[in-house]
Amino acid sequence: MIPELDYRTPETLEEACNLLWESGARAKVIAGGTDLVIRLRNKELKPSWLVDITRVPELQGIEEKDGLMVIGAGVTHAELASSAVLKRHGKILSDAASEIGSPQIRNLGTIGGNIVNASPAADTVPALMALDAVGEVVSREGERRVRLGDLFKGPYETALKPHEILTRISFQKLPPDTGCGFVRLARREATAIARMSVALTVRIGRGKNRIEDIRISVGAMTPTPHRISEAEAMLKGKSPDRGLFKEASQKVSESILRRTGLRASSSYKVPVVEALFIRSLEKALGEVA
Amino acid sequence: MESIAQRVIRFVLNGKGLQVEVPSHWTLLRLLREKLGLTGTKEGCGIGECGACTVLLDGMPVHACLLMAAKVEGREVQTVEGLGSRSSLHPLQRSLIEHGAVQCGFCIPGILMSSKALLDRNPHPGRNEVKEAISGHLCRCTGYHQIVEAIEAAGRESKFEARNPKSETNTNVQISNVSNK
C-alpha cells in the first residue's frame, strides 16, 4: 500500500514552485501518477508530500508558436494521440504516445511524467530526441531551457533538482515532406513496457529521390537516450536503397552495443533492432511516397 | 506522522454530488471499495495492467488503482453501480449476458465502463474499435471473443431497447443511437 503522505494541488505555477522550494527533497511532483503511484506502492519512493501539478494552467495545451510546437508537460498521451495540430507538425510524437500503455493509462499519463520518470523505456523520449526537443524548467530560482538529451543522467535519474518543475516541451515543426516512423516491440500489444523501439523522421527532397534529412533515436535499449548520428550521416543526401538501409541498420545496432556492451540479450536484440529500424524507415518513407 | 493526513473532497459520483473525507494517500479504488462500499470496481493487479479497476473520470476510462483520490475533486466519476441494475439492465450488461461473455465476472465491471465510454463517443463501433477500447483489459476466462461480439452487438441496438428489457433484441434494425450522457 502507498505510505501515508500529504497531498497538495496548487492552482498556479508560483504556488507549485513555492511548495517544492519549502519541502525540499521531501516532496515529489505528481502529474497523472501512472508511473509514480506504482513506485509509491512498492515503497521505492517515500515522499512526505505529493504536489499535484495537473491544475496549473501553464502546463496545459498544445500550441503553435513562431514555427515551434509548444506542449505543456501536463498534456496527456491521449491528448497527444488525438491532436490534429500535433499530427500535422510533429506526428512522430503523436504516433509514439498513441502506443503507450492502454486507453486508461493514456487518459491519465502525461508527457512530462514520461520524461521525468526517466525510464529507459519511455515511449515519448525517442520521438522527442528525433524532434530535437527542448524542455523548459521552472523553479523559485528561475527558468532554464534544457536540451532533452541533457535532462537524462541515467536510468530513472534526471538532471532536475527536487524543487524544479518541467513545464513545457518545444520543438521545431517538422517540415512538409517529412515522414515519421515509430515502431515498438513489447510482449503484448497493450499495457506492456517497450522492450525495443525505434523513432525516426525522414525528409525527402520534393521531386528528388534523395534523403534530405533523417533523425534516428531508439528506445528501451540504452541507459539514456541518444541519436544515432552514424546512421544519420550514412543516409543523409543518399537515395533510398535497400542495401544502404541494411548497412545503416548495422550502424544502429553497433551504436547501441557501444553504449551497453555485449549482453546476454544482444544476440536477440541486434538482428531485431536492425529489422525494426528498416521497418520504421519504410513506414516513414511510405508517408512521403 | 502522528495522525494520518486527511482531505475533504467534493465530487459527483454516479450522478450524485458527494462530499467525503479521505486519507491523502488513498487511491480512488480504495475510497470506492473501503469507504463508500462500492465493491463493483475490482482490484486485479493494483498496478494498472489488468483493467479490472476501470472507472470513468469525466467520461474517460482510467485505472482507479493508479488514481489518487484527491484528484477527483470537482470532477465526475462513474462506476459500474451507476450503469444499470437487475431490474433495469444497461444494454451493454444485457448484451454481455446474452452473448455468454461472463464467466467468473471479475473483469466485467471494468470492461463495462470502457465499453460505455466507447459507445458514448462512437455509438456504432466496428470490431477493431471495440478491440482497441478493451485493449487495457485482461480476461482469464473467456478468450475475449464473446466480449467483443457482445459490445459490437450492443452498438447495433437502439437506446430505446434499454428502457424496455422484456422486448426482443432486434439486431437487424439500425436505429441511430442518441449519445448516452
Question: What can you see in these coordinates?
Answer:
The complex is a heterodimer of chains A (about 290) and B (about 180). Chain A is built from eleven helices and 13 strands. The N and C termini of chain A lie far apart (about 50 Å). Chain A has helices at about 15-25, 35-40, 75-80, 85-90, 90-100, 105-110, 110-115, 125-130, 230-235, 240-260, 265-289, and strands at about 5-10, 25-30, 50, 60-65, 70, 135-140, 140-145, 150-155, 155-160, 165-170, 180-185, 195-205, 210-220. The mean pLDDT of chain A is about 95. In chain A, strand 4 and strand 5 form a beta hairpin. A five-stranded antiparallel β-sheet of chain A has the order 4-5-10-6-7. A three-stranded parallel β-sheet of chain A has the order 1-3-2, with helices on one face. Chain A is of the alpha+beta class and about 290 residues long. Chain B is of the alpha+beta class and about 180 residues long. Chain B contains five helices and five strands, in the order E-E-H-E-E-E-H-H-H-H. Chain B has helices at about 30-35, 90-100, 110-120, 125-135, 145-155; strands at about 5-15, 15-25, 55, 60-65, 75-80. In chain B, strands 2-1-5-3-4 form a five-stranded mixed β-sheet, sandwiched between helices. In chain B, strand 3 and strand 4 form a beta hairpin. In chain B, helix 2 (about 90-100) crosses helix 5 (about 145-155). Chain B is globular and about 50 Å long. The N and C termini of chain B lie far apart (about 45 Å). Classes of the chains: A alpha+beta (about 290), B alpha+beta (about 180). The interface of A and B includes residues 37 and 103 of A.
